[in-house]
């Protein structure tokens, strides 16, 4: 895990200290151990964890300035991309948001044991009261972009960013979501591509240029049924 992480970080042009690398490996080991009794990840080979979880998330550090920023990870699951971002840039003030209490409890206990500070919150995104309080919102593999934008952009202050991690369908999802992004106060900046292992991954960078209208976010069932 350690050697693979260092190699992938180097490919991304990122530098990790010995202490940072140690924290990544300890978190990865805790993830794999807990995964034996709780469904946290389908990726269970240590090298794959380093590539497909850690390096994949660390790539976002190249696309926005995270230093000393307040960051919310919406639908964080087992802590991705939020935890790798925090380990890669310790100055981040991180909130991990997920609807499943047992995942949030595990994250809170694990990060506390590692000495990593983060606010871990069990709540649905549309019910968490933190409107326009964050510099950056991030999310990975939660929903299609037209749905995800309504869950994430309300958290971002004007002048901040929303970074959505997406796969090969990113251009199609971005085209589909352009109206929603605009209505929610966002403006698409770029579609970023980056190498992970043998694949090319994508991240959509959206800048918050206006306040989100007060009626958003709606209840999730409504968002999903009638995306903007």
Please summarize what this structure is.
The protein is of the alpha/beta class and 228 residues long. Helix content is 39%, strand content 24%. It is built from eight helices and seven strands, in the order H-H-H-E-H-E-H-E-E-H-E-H-E-E-H.
- SSE order in H/E notation? HHHEHEHEEHEHEEH
Helical proportion?
Answer: 25-40%
Arithmetic mean of pLDDT: 96
- Based on DSSP secondary structure assignment, what is the total number of beta strands? 7
Question: What is the molecular shape?
Answer: globular
**Structure classification:** alpha/beta
**Mind describing the biggest β-sheet?**
7 strands, mixed
Q: What is the topology, as strand order, of the major beta sheet?
A: 3-2-1-4-5-7-6
CA distance, first residue to last residue: 41 Å
Q: Low-confidence segments, ≥5 residues, pLDDT <50?
A: none
Number of helices: 8
Oligomer: single chain
- Rg is 17 Å
Q: Approximately how much beta-strand content do the residues carry?
A: 15-25%
């Amino acid at each position: 895990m350690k050697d693979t992480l260092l190699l992938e970080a180097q490919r991304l042009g990122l530098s990790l200290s010995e202490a940072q690398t140690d924290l990544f490996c300890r978190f990865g080991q805790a993830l794999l151990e807990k995964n034996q009794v709780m469904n946290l990840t389908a990726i269970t080979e240590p090298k794959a964890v380093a590539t497909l979880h850690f390096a994949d998330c660390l790539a976002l550090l190249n696309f926005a300035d995270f230093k000393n920023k307040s960051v919310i990870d919406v639908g964080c699951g087992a802590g991705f991309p939020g935890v790798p971002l925090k380990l890669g840039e310790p100055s981040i003030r991180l909130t991990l948001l997920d609807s499943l209490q047992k995942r949030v409890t595990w994250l809170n206990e694990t990060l506390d044991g590692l000495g990593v500070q983060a606010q871990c919150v069990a709540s649905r995104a549309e019910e968490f009261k933190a409107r326009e309080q964050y510099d950056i919102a991030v999310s990975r593999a939660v929903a299609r972009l037209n749905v995800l934008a309504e869950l994430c952009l309300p958290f971002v202050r004007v002048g901040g960013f929303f970074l959505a991690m997406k796969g090969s369908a990113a251009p199609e999802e971005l085209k589909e979501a352009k109206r929603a992004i605009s209505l929610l106060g966002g403006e698409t900046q770029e579609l970023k591509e980056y190498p992970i292992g043998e694949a090319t991954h994508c991240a959509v960078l959206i800048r918050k240029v206006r306040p989100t209208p007060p009626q958003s976010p709606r209840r999730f069932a409504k968002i999903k049924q009638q995306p903007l």
